[in-house]
Each structure stands twice: as C-alpha cells, then as structure tokens.
Amino acid sequence: MEKVLKPMSGYLALVICLVLFIASVVLFITGTGSENIVNIALAGVCFITFFFFIKGLMIIQPNHSRVLNFFGKYVGTVKDNGLFFINPLYSSQKMSLRSENLQGQTLKVNDKMGNPIEIAVVMVWKVGDTYKAAFDVERYSDFVKMQSEAAVRHLAMSFPYDNLEDDHAPITLREGGDKINSILEQELTDRLSKAGIVIQEARISHLAYASEIAGAMLQRQQATAIVAARTKIVEGAVGMVDLALKKLSEGNIVELDDERKAAMVSNLMVVLCGEKAAQPILNAGTLYN
Q1: Quick check: helix, strand or coil at residue 260?
Q2: What count of other Cβ atoms lies within 10 Å of the Cβ of residue 27?
Q3: Which residue spans traverse the membrane (predicted)?
Q4: Whole-model pTM over 0.85
C-alpha cells in the first residue's frame, strides 16, 4: 500500500552543504600552501560529508512525487513539492501525478452482431497510487496503453453498433451516449486499478462501420429511413382520405356509391403518396364512361 512521507525541509541541509564545500576548499588551499597534512585530511572529510549531504537533497516539482526505497525496501512516497532532505542512502524514482491524455488508435473489431467496425477512444488518466504504479506493473504507461485497447475491444464486442439487426437491444454503440461512456470508464477502471491508475474521463472519439461493409450498411440505413418515411406518409394519407369521406358524407355534399368511393380513395392516395406533384386532369364525361 502507498505510504505518504513528509520529510524535513532541505534549506538547512543546503546551508550545511555550502559551509562544508567552502570549508573543504579553504582547508585544502591552506593545507597545500603550508604542507599541513591535517588540513588536507580535514578538507577531504569535509568534501566527503558535503557529497553525502548533497545526495540527500531532493527537489519535487508541483504535481510530481518521489517513490523512496532503502536497499530494495519501499519506504514511502513524497507528494509535497519543494526542497527536502532525505536519507542519502535512499534511492528515489520520479513519478508524475499530472493528468495525461491518451488518444487511442483506431481499432477494427467485430461488434456483438459480428459486423466489422472501427472504434477509437480518448481518455484522461493519472497516477493515483504510486506504490502500485511503481511496483505492481513493469511500466505503467505501457500498461495503460495495452489495457485501454483491450477494454475498447471488449466494449465493442459486448454491444451492437446499432439496432438494425437487433431491434430489442437496450444499448447500442451508436446511440448509447453517456451510458456507453460510463460503461467504458468502469471497464477501464477495473483493468487499470491494479496499476494504481485513476480514470478521470473516457469517451468514444471515432465510431464507424469498417470500409468493406460501410457502403452496404449505408444503403441499408437509407432503405430503413425510406420505409419509415413511407409508412408515415401512408398513415397520414389514410387519415386524410377517411376525413375527406366523412366530411363529404356529413355535409351531404355528394352521394357516393361504393365504386365512386373506391375511385376517390385511389385518386387521393395517388396524390398524397406520390413523390411528385399531381397534374390535374378534367374529365368531360362521367365516371362510368
């Protein structure tokens, strides 16, 4: 588990380092001029102490951290920013805590119905647990890329692209919207939590049929749209014809037998359902001649 450390300030250690460095230089110069071996030895001791202290100084930038180890044993993580002094024998690993964008590459996968589709996602992530990111996976950035691709493939295979083939599908990739994005975020969280990664946002950035079936699917969508439009037109035309016959009958405007009603219905349906405007034709005779 991650353990957050708060080390001592490094400003006092920095002053000590400067004093030791100056003392080592002065002692070395005075010892060399007078051939005083003691001064030269003291200069060496001061320089070694200076080197030891300077190794313990550590600068942490905002939204960065240092993971500390002591001969292979995890000591803790420093998340505060500033100048600090730690045990010079500690080894440290830099780790960014900033949010990062990942634009996934466009993947070609089969949806739930077996249709090849192209899908890509964009996600925002950051390191939440430095211990897991540093020790539970080899390279957490590569782990994020690989597992995000696996999550996208699993998402695409779990839902149909649209409801053309599955009319009863409660969720589709094309119309799922926030629900699909929420499922994607949960899938990524489950996969990346073992590396201490926090998913802040995940969205589908590209979604389309694969090129080999895109033309056929477009024709199918167009045909479906045409059928739906024609259905609405026919329903409206039938209602208008029924209203016209009722108004003619209620107002005693004209008496129509069954044959004339059939002819009127036929003419009205042609006019109302036709794609082009009807051209009026005057009948100089009668309906029966």
Answers
A1: helix
A2: 21
A3: 12-31, 37-60
A4: no
pLDDT tens digits for the chain (289 residues)?
Answer: 888 888 888 888 889 889 888 888 888 777 665 556 777 788 888 888 888 888 889 999 999 999 999 998 999 999 999 999 998 899 989 999 999 999 888 888 888 888 888 899 999 999 999 999 999 998 999 999 999 999 999 998 888 887 766 556 678 888 878 898 999 999 999 999 999 999 999 999 888 887 765 566 676 666 667 677 777 777 777 887 777 777 767 766 666 666 767 777 776 777 667 666 666 665 655 555 5
In the chain, what is the straight-line distance between the N-terminal and C-terminal CA atoms, in Å?
A: 97
- Residue 244: partners with Cβ closer than 8 Å, 6 or more residues away: 264, 268
Q: What is the dihedral of CA 5, 8, 10, 16, to 10 degrees?
A: -140
Q: Running DSSP on this structure, what letter comes out for residue 80?
A: -
User: Any residues with CB less than 8 A from the CB of 145 and at least 6 apart, and which?
Assistant: 102, 104
Taken in order of first residue, the domains within the chain and their CATH numbers are 10-95 (no CATH), 100-211 (3.30.479.30), 222-273 (no CATH)
Q: Structure tokens of 41?
A: 């030895």
> Kind of pairing, strands 64-70 and 73-78?
antiparallel
